[in-house]
Amino acid sequence: MNFKLVKNYFIIFISSILFSIYLFEVYITQKVNLEHDELQRKILFNEKINSKQQELLRLYDKYGDLLLKKKIELYKTETNKEFDIRDEFKVYEQLKNDIENLSLPIYPISFLGKKNDLRPLSGLSHSVTMNCNENGYVSFFHTDRYGFNNPDDEWDKEKIEYLILGDSFAMGSCVNRPNDIASVLRKLSKKPVLNLGYGGNGPLLEYISLKEYLDTNVNKVLWFFYEGNDFQNLDNELRDPILVKYLNDKSFTQNLKENQNKVDDLVFSKIGGKKKKLKTIENENIEEKIELSKPDHETKMEKYEGLIINNKEKNAKEKLFSKEIKDKQDEINKLLELKKSIKFKSEKNGLRLKNFITFYNTRNKLSEIFYPVKNESDFEKIMKLAKEITLKNNSQLYLVFIPAYSRYVSLNIKDYYVYSNVKKITNKLDIPFIDIHEDLINKEDNKLKYWPFGLPGHFNVYGYKKISELVFKSTNTK
Questions:
Q1: What residues are paired with 223 via a beta bridge?
Q2: DSSP state, 235?
Q3: Phi and psi (nearest 5°) for 353?
Q4: Most buried of the four, 166, 236, 328, 472, by CB within 10 Å?
Q5: DSSP readout, 394-449?
Q6: Residue range 252-269: average pLDDT?
Q7: Residue 357 has what pLDDT?
Q8: 64-310+378-474, CATH topology level
């Protein structure tokens, strides 16, 4: 065989392979650049849009007196009652000597990073807990034997249909029973429901609540994820050395059920007050006592500077408020339009000679295929652990996605990274995803009717009711 001919074929063969690899490197490099452009574009515009959203929400604070006056008028028209402009702290101070076991909500996050070696997941047991005021009245709830918002005898039921995990939305903030999610689900299902939600909780605290309090008699576990701040809360939780033990050691527990006395002592150290009785009388008319403690309407109104303004001033202020809100929304709308059309020059545009010669992007792509890096997010890890526990317990885990109010006052920005990431993770783990955004609120013309007076906060009675109905329907469809 002609050696020279073989040599030529070999050179052609090697050259062809190198040419093909370099062509692939060109393709991959351009693809990486395009992806980088898109990411850069999204980051830049999301930062600008988020900044404008914050400015929009600050307008509500700026015109707080005007909005409060609007709330007072609407509440009077709808209920024929006077709007209570006190908060839970004021009511607590006025009634702490009149109501046995009166408490404020002491949130689990307030104990993070402290020197004490216990991390409570609830408030004071067997108490009357003042909650919040967004609907015109100061809400409250009776806590159970473990400090959660439940009728105490729910813990004695033979079978629990729903166990609820989450933050203040799950807890039922700013409404009274029977208008919180747990109460509505009890009515719809005609079965027991346990609520372990507490204000300020993030995913790690919620997982720990599941681990500490889940019993074998639970049928369905509802994990309420709040778009607005759950990932931020998780960042804070991951800094606490005791909480992190739950992630790294599946056998770790604080045995909180057996340590409720210690939990109560820690809560009392936060709020002070006299030693509580063993149990609060749940049929005591707390709502009436709160109502009777309200000061004279005209007197309390005069305490708020700028609240009582004449019609001429009110109309001028309302016009200015409407104009500033509209201007801010227009700015956000323009950014959204620009986001669709403008391309940015990437820092990586073009082929860098060194990377090109060494097949930099090709090698990276091959390493991803043959040597995948396990880069599991903390949230994904938590949801995996939660699913393991519920499967072992023969319980069905659901994730209920609660959208943020800001989503609907900034012209429905659809590319919230939180929404897509959470949905992607739950799909990957085969956890049913109950979408309060797409399947409920986004279908409405008036999307703000789920919030008190259409303003930022927790849900109103209507909002909690409709969410509960969707959850019930979604968990009972065969």
A1: 165, 399
A2: H
A3: -55, -45
A4: 166
A5: T-EEEEEEE--THHHHTT-----HHHHHHHHHHHHTT--EEEHHHHTGGG-SSGGG
A6: 93
A7: 56
A8: Rossmann fold (3.40.50)
